[in-house]
Design goal:
By secondary structure, the protein is of the alpha+beta class.
């Protein structure tokens, strides 16, 4: 599945070619084209759908036209010919905080922290990433989220990517992966837990997020080699992650041999 060229193509943290417009503006234009109705951000007149999310049954509300950007919700709402106030979708396996990010993306074309283009440095960065002293508001960027389904912290963008995969939102997957590539200083146990989650919640045909984790582990192999967590995870096994990692490491060694 992973060709020898993957290391240069999907290397974590690789500089991203800048665009003439912000990612948010680009995504909003795509969303508006899909809606073929009032632009995102204007007064929408489609029925309101109630969404019951998570085991705690937190309630969200969204316009049906906005939700219909997702094939998942098109199918879920098909056949609900009730009054607009009665339309409801149950999502017991979703995390409310992650679902909130998905809704924010559907309405605004991005989710917090937004992806911003720094014109002076000609690079992409996350909103508030350097504002560690910010008081009030949402504060500095938090890269992880507690996921009740796995009983531990995951990388937030990985959870969003996997939810976008379920909902059929390819542009959101690309955005989440780009944002995750800007994160750094993540604990080994969080990386491995998130990698396992990625493998469990993406199909074998979707290798982008998986390749991101393989590249990250290879690039940080000295840290992972000394990690007791890595040793324990490999001994436990039970994930295709470690075979793919073995193949990727072999390809990496072959590339070095070819160069020398």
């Amino acid at each position: 599945m992973f060709k020898r060229s993957f290391a240069s193509k999907d290397r974590a943290g690789k500089a991203v070619k800048p665009s003439k417009r912000s990612y948010r503006e680009h995504a909003k234009m795509k969303l508006q084209d899909k809606l073929n109705s009032p632009p995102v951000g204007s007064t929408l007149t489609s029925p309101i759908v109630t969404l019951v999310v998570g085991h705690e049954q937190r309630l969200f509300a969204a316009h049906e036209d906005v939700l219909s950007l997702s094939p998942f919700f098109v199918a879920a709402l098909r056949g609900q010919f009730f009054e607009s106030s009665a339309k409801q979708v149950q999502l017991p396996d979703e995390e409310p905080e992650i679902f909130s990010c998905v809704l924010e993306y559907l309405y605004k074309g991005d989710y917090y922290p937004r992806l911003l283009h720094n014109k002076r440095r000609n690079s992409w960065e996350l909103e508030d990433a350097q504002d560690l002293q910010k008081i009030g508001g949402r504060g500095s960027v938090e890269s992880t989220i507690y996921h009740s389904g796995v009983g531990g912290d995951l990388l937030k963008d990985t959870a969003i990517y996997c939810t976008a995969e379920k909902f059929g939102l390819d542009e959101l997957k690309r955005l989440a992966l780009r944002k995750q590539g800007l994160q750094s200083g993540i604990q080994v146990d969080v990386i491995l837990r998130s990698a396992r989650y990625a493998y469990e919640n993406t199909p074998d045909t979707d290798s982008r997020l998986r390749a991101h984790y393989l590249a990250l582990i290879i690039r940080s192999r000295k840290i992972f080699k000394r990690s007791g967590t890595m040793q324990t995870e490999m001994e436990i096994g039970g994930s295709k992650l470690f075979f793919d990692l073995f193949v990727a490491m072999c390809n990496h060694v072959d590339d070095i041999v070819d160069i020398t």
